[in-house]
Amino acid sequence: MVSRGAKGQRGRGERLTVGGDRTLIGFGASYKPSKSLNFDIGYTHVFVNDSDINQSSTTAGALKGNFEGSVDIVGLQFGWEF
């Protein structure tokens, strides 16, 4: 799975995934030990490209800099059919 983020959105504040492009890579697995029981696990890593920020406000001052980041997401699921 690959996703590209939005750039240039104004008025939403600075957030990790809004300020720069991002790429997601994910995978998962399932294990079914019996007819009525299953276990699932998934993992996603989000790569966020470095982004520059340069904002100024008459009331809040100036915000200048550069940021980078990444996110790791793990999901677990247990299923039981009856």
TrEMBL record:
Keywords: Cell outer membrane, Membrane, Signal, Transmembrane, Transmembrane beta strand. Belongs to the OmpP1/FadL family. This is Outer membrane protein transport protein. Coiled coil: none annotated. Pfam families: Toluene_X. It comes from Nostoc paludosum FACHB-159. InterPro entries: OMPP1/FadL/TodX. Its main location: membrane. It is found in: Cell outer membrane. The keyword Glycoprotein does not apply. It is a multi-pass membrane protein.
